[in-house]
């Protein structure tokens, strides 16, 4: 499979009144065409900020470290996303080759414009098609995501649609420009389980049909298991584990991933007690030295965890974790 | 079980809201429709359903925060018995101490301009439960310690705390007046999984330690399965199924309950569970279907389901009740 996007050593800080906040720290990953990557982590782990960086969409107080690289592979060649400056160039990563679906569809549609008008507007921004053709494509897309009576819905406003419908319309809008990469930021979190299941099925069908890559940001490991090919787990801005979805969920290698899985209430075993990950995620202003997780880790092996930053180590093919435990194991072997 | 063992008893309880102001476009919205249920003393009672199912309204009706428009609801502890429909005046003020609510969003529920100590102390001062400042401080410190809050944090403001800590502050505030009955409305929905388990364990511990009765409202079946003793499932204002937790999860009888289970995304990537998917969405409560409310989305609906509304009846297990015309026939089908 050919590469779609390459993120190398992405480090991102925000300048605030309280000082420099490191939101993303030396994160690297890549996505192939047609591949679905789940990006997991709790609030404050930097997953949304990472996704926004791909569209160069972070606020003006963001500082990218000089070694950060985001390379988008398009049919016309490679594009260095972080070097894009002009609005007209940024269009490529903002709705052109990369599209985004947000968590709260009510807040992402303009309330005073009809759904159709917004869809046509963005199609015309990204291509030179006529208004009539744009309307045709929009209605086709609405129909494709399972909105009944698409030509009628085209003229309705966001408030007239139910939550599930709105999220479908959002997906239709994001896909109408035929992006190569779709970023879905918690697209099902605000939905009921029965509707969430429908939206997940829809997204899976669409991957097969359109062949785009997807970054699926979520805190729900169940949703990841059902949608992703591979998973990346983030904690306090660091990528601590990545690998194929079956591997990571069945044999998690990092104590944080293990803790997340143990904290999930499981329906198969009602008697097992719930085991929380102890403590709270530290404030980004007080990032712990050494391994960022050591303040909550039940498996700390000594001063090395408190002092030295662990590096990603392969535990299986394509499956790596940044934890000193695995360094020890490797050193001993 | 005799009525004396129940803290809350609801009989044909309805809550109807009037919507539309004009003379000719008056409409009513039945948020809770003919609900009969018992909440036993000392239980952890779960209420599940999608948004729009009326679960929050039912919780508020038990707290007398929305008017009860039909049927009865009775609160009965060892000291007093109140009819919630007619409760007023001094008795209502007394009931406010006995019944409390924990909110969903710990970011919105705490005033940013009050210290944690003042937030927790406010109910005591408003209800006049303590006479001196020293007494108030004493109560606040006691409950804060029970809710595993660091006592040094009492002087800080809420913005300094994480979601889990804020939710513990909300819990302390709800419990400071020493209530008997607590409604927890989606109290862990806004929290990260790693923290969620911690707050759930705390709620369970407090319930045992303080002898509380909890009504736990949630849309998350797996959370309910792990915390509650008894679960009721609501759909469009009606109770569709109620049973002891284990019974409900091992042998769900209502097609809606089965569909809810199969919609939970499985942690096993090879188990897609598409078989039982529901089509469509919950209908608008202002324009409800006839007959069984669920028939528009039910894969097993018949002509009878469209015409006749099923009543809650005993199913095959103790304490298990279901409201479906066809539950017996459907038992033989794989869940």
CATH topology of the largest domain in chain B: Rossmann fold
Q: Enumerate the strands of the largest sheet of chain B in spatial order, edge to edge or round the barrel.
A: 6-7-8-3-9-10-12-11
Radius of gyration of chain B: 21 Å
Mean pLDDT of chain B: 89
Oligomer: heterodimer
Q: What is the number of helices of chain B? A: 11
Task: Assign a percent range to the helix content of chain A.
Answer: 25-40%
Element order of chain B: H for helix, E for strand: EEEHEEHEHHHEHEHEEHHHEEH
Q: What are the segments of chain B in which pLDDT stays under 50 over at least 5 consecutive residues?
A: none
What is the distance, rounded to the nearest whole angstrom, between the alpha carbons of the first and last residues of chain A?
Answer: 34 Å
The beta-strand count of chain B equals: 12
- What composes the largest sheet of chain B? 8 strands, mixed
The H-and-E topology of chain A, N to C, reads as EEEHEEEHHEHHHHHEHEHEEHHHEEH
Main interface pair? A-B, 42 and 45 residues
**How many structurally independent domains of chain B?**
2
Helix/sheet category of chain A: alpha/beta
The chain-level structural class of chain B is alpha/beta
Distance between the termini of chain B: 30 Å
